[in-house]
User: Fold this.
Amino acid sequence: DARVTQTPRHKVTEMGQEVTMRCQPILGHNTVFWYRQTMMQGLELLAYFRNRAPLDDSGMPKDRFSAEMPDATLATLKIQPSEPRDSAVYFCASGSPRSGAAYNEQFFGPGTRLTVL
Amino acid sequence: SQKIEQNSEALNIQEGKTATLTCNYTNYSPAYLQWYRQDPGRGPVFLLLIRENEKEKRKERLKVTFDTTLKQSLFHITASQPADSATYLCALDIGYQKVTFGTGTKLQVIP
Assistant:
């Protein structure tokens, strides 16, 4: 069955290193979201795209984070340079709003657990 | 900005009872409100969506209410089972699929 996939599932890196997380949305979904989840802050929206165009990245620290969709099957979230406070689980989700319908569910991937030492 | 409050304390209930989880929000009323379930080590899974002009929505043992006057949604699980144990997140959808999530309530159903 259709799922959102994310790689890597776990990443341990040292402060200052570049981290790239990848997401493959469900085929046919035109909206992709990046979230970060921590115990303290919960699930925070970092950025989202519709039809590969960025719609909102106001939740993302612009100086070190960047999000892109090179094509419809791949979304990337990059952190450069990484810092210990970036340690969190990063989720990608995809969705496909139905015109005229109240159905806006999001399908989440399994997440990437990032630890920055 | 929109603030969402869910019971920060874990909720423990006996199997077979009805679990009721609360989601309160401030500021403007959202176009839709959603509930998700999250198990440890996994991403959230969508359960139910309710629109601002709907008072109640049901799906099997789940029921969601939405009171825009009180700025509150209640999420009920009837005849609860140990398999219902998870963290439940409410999310406010302000349209265009942009949502703000609450921090979640951890539910533990005791056999």
